[in-house]
Design goal:
By secondary structure, this protein is α/β, with parallel strands linked by helices. Helices cover 28% and strands 14% of the residues. The chain has a domain at 112-260: Rossmann fold (3-Layer(aba) Sandwich). Bound molecules: iron/sulfur cluster. Iron/sulfur cluster binds next to helix 3.
Length: 261
Amino acid sequence: MLVSKLKVLRSHGKQFIPDLQGVKLPDTFRGRPRITGPIPSELAGELERICPVGAITAEPFSLDTGRCVFCNECAMRAPQHIVFTSDYRLSSADRDALVVRENAPEAIDFRADKVRTCIHRLFGRALKLREVSAGGDNATEMELNASMNVNFDFSRFGIDFVASPRHADGVVLTGPLTENMARALEICYNSIPAPRILILAGSDAVSGGLFADSPALQRDFLDRYPVDLYIPGNPVHPLTFIDGIMTLLGHYRREPWLQAQ
Ligand code: SF4
């Protein structure tokens, strides 16, 4: 009985990805945008107008990955100026670092100096997170689930989702934060013993995304509590999520070789 089970296990081989940092996503993946300037002002104005979420500012030209829904409209209109690279390392501890400007070849700056010192010390070896979907469409939520599947196996690093905020060290917020979830989110967040972590996953959570101007949102919670990590994406790729958390905990660094991608 045991021998036959071992044989089955052996025939499956290794299903997890041994080196998550070594994974290269296909060129069709839309990750960090690269902007080649100068962009003529007429074209820049047109790009600002066609962006459905106001992620593009024409003057001076910039693209806010915290708002972007990666629809590719701008890159199709100006392929000589905007390219979405397959670099999935999009997160930062600083909201302003998510804005990509003309001729900025570097990887997104993680701003490790903004990370609270207690985070490495207290959560570097184990981190339990409670996920709160506040008006989310289940896209990023499914990708967060996928980060724990047999391929990505994120829990091998001691990081897990838990069912109760009482067992958690922090909250991962997905969705644009609707009014009917605002109170529930705050109760959940305050049920976690301090110091606690707050992570925004996905463009909806970071900026409101497509729903930013909706009267159904109530996002003042984010003005009252410190955010530790911003993770762009629509939805967030599991590798983007894993990279963000591991960099927040000090296990990954934005290596210089990434800047050449
Ligand atoms: S890819 Fe992003 S920046 Fe470009 S048009 Fe779409 S939402 Fe706007």
